[in-house]
Amino acid sequence: MDVNLTLADVRRLVRMAFPARRVDGFESLSGGLCNINLKILFESNEAPVVLRLYRHDPVAVQKEVELLSLVRKTVPVPEVLHANYEGIDHSGPFAFIEFVAGPTFQQLRRTNDVPAIRQASYKVGQTLAAIGSFGFTKPGRLGPGLCVGEPYLEADEDRV
To answer: Fewest 10 Å CB contacts: which of 46, 71, 78, 160?
Structure first.
C-alpha cells in the first residue's frame, strides 16, 4: 500500500478488525524503520490503536505475532488485537496493536532528566535480559513458526 494513506484507506482496514468502531482520524508515528505505524483515533472514547503496515517482508507480521506471543509471559509487550497476514485490496500484511502511551527512550534522553533516564535504562536492561532468556537451536533468519533458517552471515573459515 502507498505511504500516502487516505482516511478512506485507513477506515477500510479498520473495518476488518473493528467493524463497529468509527475512525475519527490517524497520526503517523515516528521511529519505524521498515514498517508504517499509524495511531488510529476513534470517534467514541475507545482507546486508540496502532495500525502497522508491513512494507518489505510479507511474513514479518506472522513472525512478529509469534515472537510477541513467545515472550509475553516475561516481557512487557503490546497486545496484538488483529493481524492480517495477506492484506486486502493490495494493502499488504497489516496488524492492529495495542497503543501504549509514553515517550520513546530517545525523547526521554533529550529531557536530560538523569534520574528518569537512569530508571528507564535499568528497565531496558531488565527487558533485554528477559528477551535473552529465550533461545533457539542455532543462529539465523527467523521464518514463520519461528523456525530458524539460513544464517545472516556465512562464517569465514580463515577468520574463525
So the answer is: 160
